[in-house]
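It is worth pausing here to work through a concrete case rather than discussing structure prediction in the abstract. The textbook approach is simple: state the sequence, then state the predicted structure, then interpret. We follow exactly that order.
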Amino acid sequence: MQILFWFVVTLHVLVCLFLILIVLIQQGRSADLAGAFGGQGSQTAFGPRAAANVLTRLTTWSAVIFMCTSIVLVVLYQRSTGTHSVLEGVKPAPTAPARPGK
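Step two, the predicted structure:
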């Protein structure tokens, strides 16, 4: 179980880094206006539409894998440590009875 946990942690970190990289590579939506004035030379390998399509798909799948690994990590951690509460071991504060008439 420990090997699976560390494998998922490693996969999660790699997906995080890949997702950051993919998001930073993408152009904003307003950058398409620059193509109208001759600014589309930077994407000659894929073309303006194909690059956006590939990067959008990579972003979507990276986000899905990120969310799945996040859920799996929570489940694996919870199973390995048992159920714990934030308030475990805290004694309730003693309260005085209310005064009559007030």
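Step three, interpretation. The CA atoms of residues 12 and 69 lie 6 Å apart. Residues 2-25+47-80 form one domain.
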